[in-house]
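Example record

One chain of 388 residues, shown exactly as stored in the release files.
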Amino acid sequence: MGIGNTLNRLLYSMSLRTAINTKNRYHRNRMETSNRALAKSMTDGWDLRSRAEEYIESVLPYWQQFGRQPRQFWFELAGSREQKMDPRFIPSDLYYLELLPYMNNLPFRWALEDKNYLELRFPDVKQAKTVCRKIAGEYYDGNMDLIQETDAVSLCTKSGGELFIKPSLYSGFGNGVRRFDPSKCDDAQIREYFAQTGQNFIVQEKIVQHQTLEAVSPNNVCTIRVLSLFLQGCIHIPQVYLRLGASSSTHVVVGEEYNAEIFPDGHVHAKACHDEGYWINAHDAGLYDEDFVIPCIGKMLETVRRIHPRVGHFKWIGWDFTMDQDGDPLLIELNSTPGDHAQRVSGRPLFGEMTDWILEDYFHRRSMEGLQARGFWTVNKDIRKYRE
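Predicted structure tokens for this chain:
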């Protein structure tokens, strides 16, 4: 009996590892195919010979210490803004398949990102006012008191302005967000919006952004992405960038937005990256002028430093903020698996000055490996003993 159980556990473990490796190979191949094509389209004017020399002389020696030989196109893609490779750029396959699961406890991801609980987790940070919400099929008001669907419809009708309804779980890229004016809807139409959005959503009042942001984006809310690292009791902020939606959109939708680096003093870089990788001069394109500065950016960064320690299972977080009409940071959402294109927007390594530390820890020290309880689903010990 004991030998049989040991063999079963061994076979299960081997099958699980095979499945994971197969999945990773599939995702790695998909990432390489799409990003290689994107890199090729973004290297026009960047001499092929100089790229190859930089890769051989700079990139490969750096990664040799980690036993890796990453593909050249990852560094061409990340360095496309200034047409210069930094050997510390993080290849996407390494980032998504290895570093993110190492740094963040991903089984906690969806509970952390649920928009319906952000106000409970961060009550001291300004957020859009919640009118009503739905959690696992049940309706609640803005104070998290249980209500009926008719009450939720009534709260929308009485709100007195435009509202946004959006999925609170498994959402992203701006998908599923709907803007509506309750004064122009009857109760049946509001119920239909509820039904179309699903069993988990949040209804919030329209955000009134700061006049500086309103001037450059009157039709949608400007989003400021702040990426923060929580390591050894300190919060590091290596990347901050602006996300501007298309003029015809009511909110920022990934694939249609413009991304531009924000400097520590709030100035925004002249070059903006459109649709994940095509560079334009923002001043010439009329997105914003040379004097455009994000107001009170320091206050936003201080907010991130204050609240990131509350979610310690996630060492690497992407925060989406805007500035309200009073110049205060207003939290929109957080992302526990933020994209890696920030390094493309800034032309700097994803983890900034902490990049060497992160890579040396992952490949050599493994100091973060024992910080959190991680693992796969296993049969309950009591049931296993009973079966034995």
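Notes: Residues 107-114+209-352 form a domain with the D-amino Acid Aminotransferase; Chain A, domain 1 fold (CATH 3.30.470.20).
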